Amino acid sequence: MNRILHTIGAVSIAAGLAIVVVSARSQQPPPASEQPPVPPQQPGEIGTVITADGGAQTRIAVPDFIALSNDAETDRVAKTIAQVLFDDLNFEHDYALIPRDTYATIPSAKTFEDVPLARWRELGADAVVVGTVQKTAAGILVQVRLFDARRPDQRQQAFGKEYSGSAANPRSYGHAISDEIHLVQRNLHGVARTKIAFASDRDGERVGGTIESRNVKEIYISDYDGANQRRVTTGRSLNIQPNWSPDAKSIAYTSYRNRDGLPNIFISHIYQGLLDQFPKAPEQTFQPSWSPDGTRIAFWSTRDGNPEIYVANRDGTNVRRLTNNGGIDQSPTWSPNGTQIAFISDRTGTPQVWVMGTDGLGLRKVTSESYADRPTWSPAPYNEIAYTARTGPGFDIKVIELASGQIRQFTFGEGTNESPAWAPNGRHLAFTSTRSGKVQVFVIDRAGKNLKQITNVGNNEKPDWSK
Amino acid sequence: MLMRSAARRAAPLVLTVLAIAVAACGKKTPPVARAVPPPSTTAAGSPAVTPRVPPPPEAVPDPAVVPPEPVREDSIASASLDDLNRNSPIKPVFFEYDSSEITSEGKGILDANAAALKKYPSWTITIEGHSDERGTAEYNLALGERRAVAARAYLVSLGIPGERLRTVSYGKEFPFDPGHDDAAWSKNRRAHFVITAK
Predict the structure, then answer these.
(1) What are A303-313's pLDDT values in tens digits?
(2) Are A280 and B173 in contact (CB < 8 Å)?
(3) pTM confidence score
(4) Which residues of A touch B167 (CB under 8 A)?
(5) Residues 6+ apart with CB under 8 A from A295
(6) What is the DSSP letter of A206?
(7) What are phi and psi of A301, to 5 degrees?
(8) What ipTM describes this predicted complex?
(9) Residue A351 in contact with partner chain B when CB distance is under 8 A
(10) Do A277 and B13 touch (CB under 8 A)?
(11) CB of A293 closer than 8 Å to CB of A247
(12) Cβ-based neighbours of A40, under 8 Å, separated by 6 or more
């Protein structure tokens, strides 16, 4: 049984990602195909990390990739990869991207050898990403080079990779290249290949078994930039509070799909088409949160008569209760090293963020808002908790730095704002806002700038960002 | 152990988890009791200990030419669950903002609900706790639960057995009134009663 499931899973994942890195090649021209493959790129071999002079942000250009096959699809794929790569690199704010509408005067290269580096340097580029796209029997072959434009005559390459796979999702090549460049050049774990899960009522499907007019909510996923939104559950009931497993292959969530109507935790293994459920309790179980190592899930439940925090193994066995008081305890989130849990408790009268050890000891109150909800602990190296705070008639997103207690506010009464979720590298937050009408998912950077709406249809709630 | 209900598709992108009725989920659900048929001496479904003597043929009773005048109780007893819930004798109870305290008006409604539940002792009820949209999603789930639990506790104090009363919180999901004003909010802060078996 396990073997069969494993095989199916592997096939599905490969199909989903549509990219295989076939080789990593050294940076030395020419011709790349004669170079022996160098599996992981070694910084020492590359020898070039492109930075701007004088500590300024490195300026980088991403012209359309070169279509080596002469057809409309290859042309379209080449343009899409470059645009997506540009947007991905821009997203992390680690490079200064030279706007693509300023490239018109620079002659298009036909090969890596005739990239006019001197012209790119004139435009102010420190680096240029150049790629080629070629049709193959199996799909496409994408090659990419990062040229150092600071000394155009040396034609130095700082990065060279080759990818092959399906032409069905050209965006995924742009994402893979962006993550690779960020990692190799900046030692930065980019999020271009991450996804955001959320609950949506966009289908307008009715809940069965009720006389009231009630729309289902199902779990959806999208690329981090809002592209490729698709449904991953068919619970035909309320399916809410999605939470990614650390390996980003499974989503735990709260579903009311059982016939007894009691909400319970379900786990969808989205690339395998498999569905697990926690052992059924005689009471309600809500809001799963995976531990950073993926072995445990924290949640809250009324199984002992009052909302309390619990931790179980990832299959729902070995349940341990962590809180014990007459107030409401809910919304657990793990610290990055898995030793502490932040949660919401109203034991002092109003809901506030609290922190405790995973043994339930070491309790301390973290916030003093009029009302706080849904804490989410940042990844390292930041040590911050984002949460929802009542600031007026509505709510706003705040972040508290735990060591100093310093609080930053990210939204300021534009509609009501809830449910923050960190990007896995801590450089962005996803959250929901009603500022454009219905409830939609937005993304904002950790400086509180560059707000972007990533959903548009129906109400979209409770985002969670994959690792 | 996990209950694993599996489905897989041959299509290359297996992204949709098929809805599968969970095998064991009917276990806790009380069977839906049908209205008892007209009295008959037939021992339908008699247990195995009954000697397997074929019963003598019975006289089929003539259908009553004039059915007895239906009294109100009978029409309720014979209604389907959906019909019952559409015009339910168990009325919702409303709450103040950010409160799960039963108001004096709420107590009056619950007193009447308790009377109805005593009249139909076979009924089981799910008490749904709801909030208005002004709180946050997660905390409202707990607040909705508190409202359902408060209504349940009051009914239990009036002698309704707790086993007949299940609580489920929906938080701010499924508002009764989709509006965004005081009138709508006051209708949405409620404990709503659903008859699940009769």
Answers:
(1) 999 999 999 99
(2) no
(3) 0.82
(4) 284, 302
(5) A313, A314
(6) B
(7) -155, 155
(8) 0.82
(9) yes
(10) no
(11) no
(12) A24
Give buried/exposed letters for A75-109 (b at 16+ CB in 10 A, else e): eebbbbbbbbbbbbbbbbbbbbbbeeeebeebeeb
Answer whether residue A267 shows pLDDT above 80. yes
Distance CA A57, CA A37 (A): 32
Mutate which: B22, B85, B138, vs A, most A CBs within 10 A:
B138
CA distance A442 to B126: 36
Kindly list the residues from chain A whose CB atom is less than 8 angstroms away from the CB atom of residue B1: 279, 315, 317
Q: Is A212 on the interface with B (CB under 8 A)?
A: yes
Q: Is the CB of A260 less than 8 angstroms away from the CB of B20?
A: no
The Cα B188–Cα B123 span in angstroms is 25
For B128, the 3-state DSSP assignment is strand
A260 vs A246: CA distance, rounded Å: 31
> Which residue is listed with tokens 């509609």?
A415
- What is the C-alpha to C-alpha distance for residues A133 and A223, in angstroms, rounded to an integer? 23
Comparing C-alpha atoms, which of A421, A350, A411 is closest to residue A385? A421
Q: Nearest-CA residue of chain A relative to B85?
A: A211
Q: Enumerate residues 6+ apart whose C-beta is below 8 A from B179.
A: none
Task: For chain B, say whether A304 makes contact (Cβ under 8 Å).
Answer: no
How far from the centroid of its chain's Cα atoms is residue A358's Cα?
Answer: 26
